[in-house]
Write a structure and sequence with these properties.
- The relative contact order is 0.14.
- The protein is 19% helix and 30% strand.
- The chain is globular, with a radius of gyration of 14 Å.
- Strands 1-2-3-4 form a four-stranded mixed sheet, with no helix packed on it.
- It is an alpha+beta fold.
């Protein structure tokens, strides 16, 4: 990973997110112009474990992507998932008990 792009949560909610289409377009343009490749995306679960929700699974569409979920609950952790068929399958736990 060479660069991380943070986009605005248009829902302003800790339970749901929608990305700003204008920001998405701008990021896609930057990636193309720099001959980079988009390899995944991430979001946080402020109060629950880093496990894909039904909506996370429904919105996952790219087989080559890594979907990362950062849990900020009692024991913060970062997990990566890949799409297998129509299910997100855990690939690995990247970090447990994140220290601040």
């Amino acid at each position: 990973v060479e660069e991380v792009f943070f986009l605005t949560n248009m829902d302003h909610s800790s339970e749901h997110f929608s990305m700003n289409p204008r920001e998405q377009f701008t990021v896609q343009k930057k990636i193309r112009n720099r001959t980079m490749e988009l390899v995944g995306n991430f979001h946080s679960h402020p109060d629950i474990p880093a496990v894909p929700s039904e909506e996370d699974q429904r919105l996952a569409w790219e087989r080559e992507f890594r979907y990362l979920i950062l849990s900020l609950s009692e024991k913060p952790e970062l997990r990566a998932f890949v799409l297998e068929g129509k299910e997100l399958i855990e690939e690995e736990c990247i970090m447990k008990e994140i220290k601040s």
